[in-house]
Design a protein that fits this description.
This protein is of the alpha+beta class. 34% of the residues lie in helices and 24% in strands. The protein is built from nine helices and 18 strands. The strands form five sheets. A six-stranded mixed beta sheet has the order 1-2-6-3-7-17, sandwiched between helices. It has a four-stranded antiparallel beta sheet with strand order 11-13-9-14, covered by helices on one side. Strand 1 and strand 2 form a beta hairpin. The structure holds zinc ion. The site of zinc ion has 5 residues, from helix 3.
Length: 391
């Protein structure tokens, strides 16, 4: 079947036009991609979320039942609220060799390149199949890709390799940190502030927990360290706090979040155990002496595994070969690569656009980045046709 053929920039213009901010539906964009693939004779498998307001998409080109190379990207983008843009973020605008728009770098540019490469993949006799794996809700904790991975394993075949096309300026990334987010709720007892001993001050208790977190932060800064990363240690930050009712009331509630960006190999469960033990040992007994109903609830709200491909990685070797490079990099932002690796695929991160532009106002992708990515995908198609070993 001879479907329509578009350039990556043309497809990017279409993709950017769908406002797929994470809290909104991505179904219109998914329908566009499904329709485009159908025009090329490809059937898409959709994996919807529980509310059926969003969906991931999977399709495969080449021999069925064979583990191939998955090209993976997320369809959602971060919000534009509070940012000042020079032009409409959802209308692709070209200025000075750059294409501006929300998601151009992170990561609709990669999706556009993959879709533009589909006609080429189809006209080759692929020995190794190429799978398209497009998720939702990546920007809010890699939520959509988890059921998608499970569904691919159940109904199809676990990909042999996964290329995650996050913006790396087309350099090969073989390691990233893993973010873990905790949510903490301190419940004290309210009292008139003039009668403070009758209450349990939730904000004061939270303050003790914050001090312990500062101590952990300082320790993480010293060890372990990995100089490939910037910064070369795991970071811990308190990122939100909320508490109190009025100036003259002992606060009954205080809630806060903290975030750890763990290096591969850092035992985050040890951090979890430590802050819980501190709460139980130091804070709670004192609170309970005044109010039995008081307490501290600590739970992990979201966790994305860190990623370390290792020196024997087949996906890294393939990406280096296709990119014509012999150098790998480590980054501090998270991607879906760690989740794919946990599921048994060899993963690598490489995609067009610069992470420096991701999430910012006037996000853009340089046009030549799209060209570099198209050349990479062209070489991938040729490699998949030969089915040659990577090394
Ligand atoms: Zn991204």
């Amino acid at each position: 079947m001879n479907g329509p053929s578009y350039s990556a920039a043309e497809l990017l213009a279409r993709l950017v036009h769908f406002d797929t901010t994470s809290h909104k539906s991505n179904l219109a964009l998914v329908a566009f991609i499904e329709d485009y693939l159908a025009q090329h004779g490809l059937a898409s498998q959709l994996v919807p979320n529980a509310e059926a307001s969003k969906a991931s998409l999977y399709t495969s080109i080449g021999p069925p039942g064979v583990p191939g190379v998955a090209l993976s990207g997320h369809t959602d983008v971060v919000p534009v609220e509070g940012q000042t843009w020079s032009s409409d973020p959802f209308v692709l605008a070209e200025r000075d060799g750059r294409l501006y728009g929300r998601g151009t770098a992170d990561m609709k540019g990669f999706l556009a390149c993959v879709l533009a490469a589909v006609p080429d993949f189809l006209q080759r006799k692929l020995a190794v199949p190429i799978h398209l794996v497009f998720s939702y809700d990546e920007e809010v904790g890699c939520l959509g890709v988890r059921p998608l991975i499970a569904e691919i394993r159940r109904r199809f075949v676990t990909p042999r390799m996964v290329v995650v096309g996050e913006p790396t300026s087309m350099s090969v990334v073989d390691a990233h940190k893993g973010p873990v987010r905790w949510h903490v709720e301190v419940k004290g007892r309210a009292a008139h502030s003039s009668m403070a001993p009758l209450g349990v001050n939730a904000i004061s208790v939270a303050g003790k927990l914050l001090q312990e977190l500062s101590r952990i932060e300082r320790e993480l800064k010293v060890a372990p360290r990995a100089e490939r990363f910037d910064p070369p240690y795991a970071t811990l930050q308190v990122t939100r706090i909320d508490g109190g009712t009025a100036t003259n009331i002992v606060p009954v509630y205080c809630r806060f979040d903290f975030d750890v960006r763990a290096l591969p190999g850092v035992d985050v469960t040890a951090i979890d155990r430590r802050i819980r033990a501190f709460a139980e040992r130091v804070c709670v007994p004192e609170m309970r002496r005044v109010a039995l109903e008081s307490g501290i609830d600590i739970h992990v709200a979201n966790q994305v595994p860190p990623f370390a491909a290792g020196s024997a990685s087949e996906a890294v070797a393939l990406a280096l070969h296709l990119a014509g490079s012999n150098e790998t990099h480590a980054v501090s932002y998270a991607t879906e690569a760690g989740l794919f690796q946990e599921a048994g695929s060899s993963a690598v991160v490489i995609g067009p656009g610069d992470i420096a532009q991701a999430h910012s106002a006037d996000e853009f992708i340089a046009k030549d980045q799209l060209g570099t990515c198209m050349a990479f995908l062209d070489r991938l198609g040729a490699w998949a046709e030969r089915g040659a070993p990577v090394r």
